Amino acid sequence: MTDDMVALPGGGFWMGSDFYPEEGPIHEEWVKPFELDRFAVTNASFAEFVAATGYLTVAERELDPALFPGAEMPSLEPGALVFVPTPGPVDLRDWRQWWRWVPGADWRHPSGPGSSIEGLDGHPVVQVAFEDASAYADWAGKRLPSEVEWEYAARGGLDQAMFSWGDEPNDGMRANSWQGCFPYLNTGAGSGGWVGTAPVGSFPPNGFGLHEMTGNTWEWTSTYWTDRLQDPTVTCMCSPDSSRARSIAPGGAVARRVLKGGSHLCAPEYCLRYRPAARSAQTEDSSTTHLGFRCAR
């Protein structure tokens, strides 16, 4: 486990944007000083955690059929979601065209049986659910950042800029995002021409010295999902815990958390979310080939 963390001074900043509806309203937030990992947690660090604790990730556990009534799944074997490029152009409104449930996919085998992380020690760990990320953070004496902390850190002091480096579009050298035509042609990003994840530290740091805060992998936060940002300056005549409202999946089983940062699968024509303000909802039990995390303290 590495302990390369950046001390952030905290303070006020303008959070949110009007790019996508769920990113507003734009409002002022205040953050106390905290530390954040300079890089996303890597395969090597996660392997150290598993070796020390014997931890079994969510994607490696047997599925309970009672939790998936009527589910159309090839099997109830342990597994996870894997991105599979399409042969050519498809309807971008249907994500099922490029995502597959793959039995046997997990953090050691991100794309399923036959794949591995051999030679990828420095790449961010993926196929980790919220519980997995939280367990690692506890073991490391850290925690997951909140959405507010994460966005403050990702902006790197550039208040209200579109990207973590400013307002200029990504040329493939600023962040690991999809280069080409989604979801079938990716020419690769960065000096390594990365298709998929890139090793941490492959792209320039932001103003706070943090690497890959946007692009490469989405990252878990501790914040429960709401369809709009909660402006702390607005009085809400609802429950006292409305700012942390739990969004429950059908059946009332699984809460959703906020993901931040976008990933190597983000493309302007489909998902321009490699931006500090971008956010996405994910059920806590989800594991995918483009989802990782970093820790705060």
TrEMBL record:
Pfam families: FGE-sulfatase (PF03781)
Domain of life: Bacteria
Every Sulfatase-modifying factor enzyme-like domain range: 2-297
InterPro entries in UniProt: CTDL_fold, Sulfatase_Mod_Factor_Kinase, SUMF_dom, SUMF_sf
Name of the protein in question: Formylglycine-generating enzyme family protein
Species in which this protein is naturally found: Lysinimonas soli
